[in-house]
Design goal:
Layout: E1 3-6, E2 12-15, E3 25-30, E4 37-43, E5 46-51, H1 57-73, H2 85-98, H3 103-116, H4 131-135, H5 143-162, H6 186-195, H7 200-210, H8 214-218, E6 226-227, E7 232-235, E8 245-248, H9 251-261
Antiparallel strand pairs: 1-2, 2-3, 3-4, 4-5, 6-7, 7-8
C-alpha cells in the first residue's frame, strides 16, 4: 500500500512501501502559476522533477507513483524531453527502410512523412501534439492523401511509445473518404482504348475482364503464375487469404498474356524498360 502525507506548506509526500527504496520520498506540490500538480523525487542520487499534467490530487498521486516506479525500473526517460516530430522522423524513417515492411508500405510511410514535414506539428515536441492540433491539419489532394499522413503519424507515435519516448498517443480521427464510382463498361473501354497506347491498352482489357488490382496484382503478375492449360492466373501476394486466388482468363485476356509471355517460362509479364523490374503506375 502507498501512503501519502501533507506537509505544513501544502505539499504532499508519498511514502514508499518497504523493499522499494523505502527511504526515498515523492513530493507532490503546486506551483503558483501552474494549474497542475508537480512531482519531485530522487533516485540513485539523481533528482527528477516535472509536471504530472493532472489537476486532481488523487490522479496526480497515482501519476507520480507510476513515474517513480518506472524510473526505478529504468524504463522512464524522465531526464530527457520527448523529441520533436521532426527529430524523431530520423529514427522512424530508418525503421521504415530496415524493418520487415512491404515495398508499398515503405512508399506509403515515406510519402506520409513528406506531407507531415510541411505542417506546424513537425516542429512540435511529441508530448505537446494534441488531438485538436492534429485535427486542424489540412493536406493537399484528396481525403485519401490526408489519411496517408495521419496513418503515418499514428505509426510514428506507436513506434515512439514502444521505446518509451512518449507515454500517451493522441486519439484523432481520420478524414472521411468517399469511394470512386467510375464504371468500366463497354463504352468506357471503347473510349479509353481509342486514345491509349501500349501497354495501357492491354491493361484496360485485362483489368476489366479479371478484376485484378493494378499495383498489387496486375502489374506484379509473373509468368510462373499463369497456367495457360487451365486458363487461370494465380495471385500469391495478398494481405488476406481470400485475396490469394486463381482468376479465370477470358479468351482475349489469354491472347494478350500469351503474346507477352511468348518464349519465356519465368519473369514479369508486364516488363519495364528498366532491366529486372515490372511496370508501375508512372510507366503506364
Amino acid at each position: 500500500m502507498l501512503l501519502f502525507r501533507s506537509d505544513p506548506f501544502g505539499g504532499t509526500h508519498e511514502l514508499l512501501p518497504c523493499g522499494l527504496l523505502g527511504g526515498d520520498l515523492v513530493e507532490l506540490f503546486r506551483k503558483n502559476k501552474s494549474k497542475y500538480y508537480w512531482y519531485d523525487f530522487t533516485v540513485r542520487g539523481e533528482r527528477y522533477r516535472g509536471s504530472t499534467k493532472e489537476t486532481n490530487e488523487t490522479r496526480a498521486q497515482k501519476t507520480a507513483a507510476l513515474k517513480l516506479a518506472a524510473t526505478i525500473k529504468g524504463s522512464d526517460p524522465l531526464d530527457r524531453k520527448p523529441p520533436t516530430l521532426r527529430e524523431y522522423s530520423k529514427d522512424f524513417l530508418q525503421w521504415v527502410e530496415t524493418g520487415r515492411l512491404e515495398a508499398d508500405s515503405r512508399r506509403y510511410y515515406r510519402n506520409g512523412w513528406r506531407l507531415l514535414e510541411q505542417t506546424k506539428i513537425a516542429g512540435m515536441r511529441m508530448d505537446q501534439i494534441t488531438k485538436d492540433e492534429v485535427e486542424k491539419l489540412r493536406f493537399p489532394g484528396s481525403a485519401s492523401n490526408g489519411n496517408n499522413a495521419l496513418r503515418t503519424l499514428r505509426r510514428m507515435y506507436s513506434k515512439a511509445k514502444e521505446v518509451t519516448l512518449i507515454f500517451e498517443v493522441p486519439d484523432f480521427a481520420l478524414f472521411k473518404e468517399h469511394g470512386r464510382s467510375l464504371r468500366l463498361n463497354d463504352e468506357a473501354e471503347r473510349r479509353l482504348s481509342a486514345v491509349a497506347d501500349q501497354p495501357l491498352k492491354d491493361i484496360i482489357v485485362v483489368m476489366r475482364d479479371t478484376g485484378m488490382r493494378n499495383a498489387r496484382e496486375l502489374y506484379c503478375m509473373r509468368v510462373e503464375n499463369v497456367d495457360f492449360d487451365a486458363g487461370t492466373i494465380f495471385t500469391p501476394d495478398s494481405k488476406t487469404e481470400s485475396g490469394r486466388r486463381f482468376i479465370p482468363m477470358s479468351s482475349r485476356v489469354k491472347q494478350i498474356i500469351e503474346a507477352r509471355c511468348e518464349g519465356r517460362s519465368e519473369g514479369w509479364v508486364w516488363m519495364s524498360r528498366y532491366k529486372g523490374r515490372h511496370i508501375g503506375e508512372g510507366m503506364v
